[in-house]
Write a structure and sequence with these properties.
This protein is of the alpha+beta class and 563 residues long. The protein is built from 15 helices and 27 strands.
């Protein structure tokens, strides 16, 4: 079955090709067909279409043709994938029989002028990269700029206008080189909660498909009646919570029409325990019940609390948001409507049995959801997987996440050494784009290895053994040494083992692993073999002289290089 995706927005041909590649990755992973790249068209306001860019015009939309298997639920699966990717307001998916709106991203158009046209492309790229990577992060899904002399038209497609707009305005107003700033918005009607759940669902399909399959046909959104009842109890409830409950009305042993739903949807960096969302009814039922343990713990048990939480126990006013399941240490998440003078109305507070304390996790629910997205849900999925409740067979544990993620990476190793992961991720993203492939910063932040320490093996040419770094040794047979006469053109061809350690306690993110592997090779000669072709798991190494000596061993991965 052939479908046409009308991708609304200012996507030129290069941007459209990047989107195609990203979409094809999702389709392939779900065995859901392919994009017919020969048919893709970029369209302009006067209805001109074609497979080439028109440099003096801004596109209005693109047409992408998708061939999907003729099987039950294939169309719904395709809709779900497009929702998880995120496309701009006004986009539609259609065939001869149906036309379905699929746009969930809002558009923010910023028009501004630079003081000079000199080096303007470089200045625009630097300014907008900083805004998107350092300030907006997961709020901005995609963006494009068009330059006409000194004037710039900058289009950002964001998950939530209300959160993004103040950030964009504050950032650009501080840029002395630009003037005549004008901002327009087109709201999709969707916000941070919708994006949060879409990405959460996508991550479950990768990290714990068995658990997701157990609830995907059961969960439902809250009724208008239940939402109205909740608003009577909490008139100032955040809009993002209402939006989230309308999507999924509770996951804490919650009764839905078709059965019980138990599904962690939050965690906190403070407690590191998966947390399940209460339903609207459960929030109301637990309104008064939630106060008693808080008062008892603080007044009678000496539980500590930070300066942002009020010590006025008689006037506690909290909304119970999420609780841990019995399999974990007790952990509770609340929205606080009576903070201290130093706190924020609507702040998120967390109780952790392990730390025996209450502390503030975020200034608001919106900030909390965004923080979870920006940090790839912290280690929530690793905690879930380790819980015996979900019946994960450790004997089958492989390194599929790493190997599958690496298959989609295009990269060329060079002599540059990186110290900043953000700079590396930006360069990797740009290189992928130059190869007409796409990857997001969020994907580069995904944890692909739970281990904090591993060994990588790679081939290179060296002139002196002193080129080895402190964390490297040569792979040699017992008693073998390098002899001068074995050099070719003054170089030895060798296999090098390097011990890498992640900076994060939850393990290696894809971007960090790629950067650390790149830095190991930066001072070696690779000749034409500079193109990354994936990681292969070689097994566990328990003893390598000068590198490893531990009974449990370390996993070893070969870095495959091609010309």
């Amino acid at each position: 079955m052939r479908y046409t995706l009308k991708l609304n927005g200012t996507f030129n041909l290069e941007d459209t090709r990047n989107f195609e590649a990203y979409l094809q990755g999702f389709l392939s992973r779900n065995y859901l067909g392919f994009v017919d790249r020969d048919m893709t068209k970029v369209c302009y306001v006067d209805e001109e279409t074609g497979s080439k860019n028109i440099t003096d015009k801004i596109p209005t939309h693109s047409l992408i043709y998708i061939d999907v298997p003729d099987r039950e639920n294939a169309f719904n699966e395709l809709l779900e994938i497009i929702d998880e990717i995120g496309v701009p307001l006004g986009s539609v998916l259609q065939n001869e029989e149906v036309t379905i709106p699929v746009g969930t991203l809002s558009q923010i158009e910023v028009n501004y002028t630079f003081d000079t046209a000199k080096n303007i492309k470089k200045k625009v790229d630097k300014l907008e990269d900083k805004l998107e990577c350092d300030y907006l992060d997961e709020l901005c899904v995609v963006s494009h700029s068009y330059i006409f002399g000194k004037e710039v038209r900058y289009f950002l497609y964001v998950v939530d206008v209300d959160i993004s707009l103040p950030i964009i305005e504050a950032f650009l107003e501080n840029q002395k080189e630009i003037t005549n700033m004008d901002i327009k918005t087109s709201r999709s009607g969707y916000g941070i909660a919708h994006r949060y759940f879409s990405v959460l669902r996508r991550r479950y399909k990768v990290e714990n498909i068995k658990l997701w399959e157990s609830v995907k046909d059961i969960y439902q959104g809250a009724s208008e009646e239940d939402i109205d009842a909740l608003l009577k109890e909490y008139p100032n409830i955040p809009g993002s919570l209402i939006d989230l409950l309308k999507i999924i009305d509770g996951t804490w042993d919650t009764n839905h029409e078709k059965g019980l739903v138990n599904l962690p949807v939050f965690t906190t960096v403070e407690a590191e325990i998966p947390l399940n969302l209460l339903s609207a009814k459960q929030m109301i039922i637990n309104k008064e019940l939630a106060k008693k343990p808080i008062i008892n713990r603080i007044a009678n048990m000496g539980v500590e609390f930070d300066k942002f939480i009020s010590n006025d126990l008689e006037n506690i006013h909290v909304l119970p948001l999420a609780y841990s399941e019995p399999e974990y240490d007790s952990c509770e998440l609340y929205i606080d409507f009576h903070p201290s003078n130093e706190g924020d109305y609507g702040q998120i507070i967390v109780y952790s049995q392990d730390d025996n304390s209450y502390c503030t996790a975020s200034k608001s629910l919106d900030e909390f959801l965004l923080d979870m997205l920006n940090n790839d849900f912290y280690d929530m999925f690793q905690k879930i997987t380790k819980n015996e409740k979900f019946d994960v067979d450790d004997s089958e544990e492989e390194y599929d996440d790493l190997e599958e993620a690496a298959e989609s990476i295009f990269w060329e190793f060079a002599k540059t050494t990186y110290k900043d992961i953000k700079e590396f991720n930006k360069d990797l993203k740009k290189y992928m784009k130059s190869m007409e492939e796409a990857i997001t910063i969020a994907e580069l932040k995904e944890i692909v290895l739970e281990e904090r320490e591993i060994i990588i093996a790679y081939e290179a040419w060296i002139e002196e053994v002193s080129q080895l770094k402190e964390n490297e040794v040569l792979e040699l047979e017992d008693g073998e040494t390098l002899l001068e006469e074995e050099k070719e053109d003054g170089l030895w061809q060798v296999t090098i083992l390097a011990r890498l350690k992640s900076e994060a306690k939850k393990g290696f993110a894809l971007g960090e692993l790629m950067m650390k592997a790149h830095n190991q090779m930066a001072n070696k000669e690779l000749f034409d073999y500079v193109h990354f072709e994936g990681f292969d798991y070689l097994g566990q190494e328990t003893e390598v002289k000068g590198l490893v000596e531990r009974a449990e061993g370390l996993p070893v991965f070969e870095v495959n290089l091609g010309s």
